[in-house]
Write a structure and sequence with these properties.
This protein has 243 residues and is of the alpha/beta class. 39% of the residues lie in helices and 26% in strands. It has a single domain, classed as 3-Layer(aba) Sandwich (Rossmann fold). The protein has 9 helices and 10 strands. The strands form 2 sheets. The chain has a 6-stranded mixed beta sheet with strand order 6-7-8-3-9-10, with helices on both faces. A 4-stranded antiparallel beta sheet has the order 2-1-4-5, covered by helices on one side. Bound molecules: adenosine-5'-triphosphate and magnesium ion.
Length: 243
């Protein structure tokens, strides 16, 4: 569903941020990008979400080019990142209606989706409050609900549980597992090992813009010859990071 082939990205002439990354994510699969700050996770996800073009290489989603077929791809992806902020003066109700209109979602369908996702995430009591009066967790849940308003087959979530308490985090991870079971192709980045271990069918460890290792949690542990996943990550990082 998502194909990334030998992607490079340079923000400046003398520095390459992504140095030839390839991977594939299939329907019903959760693919994790794990890597330290500055490894290039957000850069990679922004390119997959068509917000930025690779310097070279190719990204396709369901056979569509992420550099050319932007409108078709927008209907197929749900993108979440910390860099995009909700309008502080809007209410969850207004935002939901606004994005539903962008995606031409019919009125009755919108009502059902709103009811379902407001109930799931406990948004209903806050539906008429301004975004700037809401907690971090509530804002994140609203961002997630909005990013999936058009029921996209492909989900691209950049650190979806960042800053969330364990209860809210569990609501999000349970939801992602449900979406996986329904056949969505999901790519997520995270710094949280337990999230990666619990959710991901396959993990790519990104170090300095390259995939240093890739596989299931068990495969990565055995590749690294480590006792657990966290230790495997450190070993892989140390043997691939260049000062
Ligand atoms: N717009 C930009 N212009 C120039 N350099 C950038 C830009 N955005 C990111 N970078 C650089 O690219 C590198 C990768 O950044 P990126 O945000 O993709 O990393 P990340 O893995 O998402 O990190 P984090 O875990 O902190 O979110 C960093 O060195 C960063 O400084
Ligand atoms: Mg990032």
């Amino acid at each position: 569903m998502i194909k990334v082939v030998d992607v490079h990205k340079s923000y400046t002439k003398d520095n390459e941020t992504i140095k030839g990354v390839s991977f594939e994510v299939k329907e019903g699969q959760i693919f994790g990008l794990l890597g330290p700050n500055g490894a290039g996770k957000t850069t990679l996800m922004q390119m997959i979400a068509t917000l930025m073009k690779p310097t070279s290489g190719e990204i396709t989603i369901d056979g569509l080019s992420a550099s050319k077929d932007l409108l078709e791809i927008h209907r197929k992806i749900g993108f979440l990142t910390n860099e995009i902020k909700l309008d502080p003066m809007s209410t969850p109700n207004d935002l939901f209606d606004f994005f539903a209109a962008l995606y031409d979602i019919p009125e009755d369908e919108l009502r059902d989706r709103k009811d379902e996702s407001f109930a799931r995430f406990g948004i209903s009591p806050f539906a008429e409050k301004r975004i700037n009066e809401l907690s971090t967790g509530m804002k994140q849940k609203i961002s997630i609900a909005i990013s999936l308003i058009h029921n996209p087959p492909v989900i691209i979530f950049d650190e979806p549980t960042n800053g969330l308490d364990i209860l809210t985090s569990k609501q999000v991870t349970d939801y992602l597992l449900e979406l996986k079971a329904k056949g969505h192709a999901i790519i997520l980045s995270t710094h949280i090992f337990s999230v990666a271990e619990e959710l991901c069918d396959e993990i790519a460890i990104l170090v300095d813009g390259r995939i240093a290792a890739q596989g299931t949690v068990d495969e990565l542990i055995s590749q690294a010859g480590a006792e657990n996943f966290e230790k495997a990550f450190f070993k892989i990082y140390v043997s691939n990071h260049v000062e």
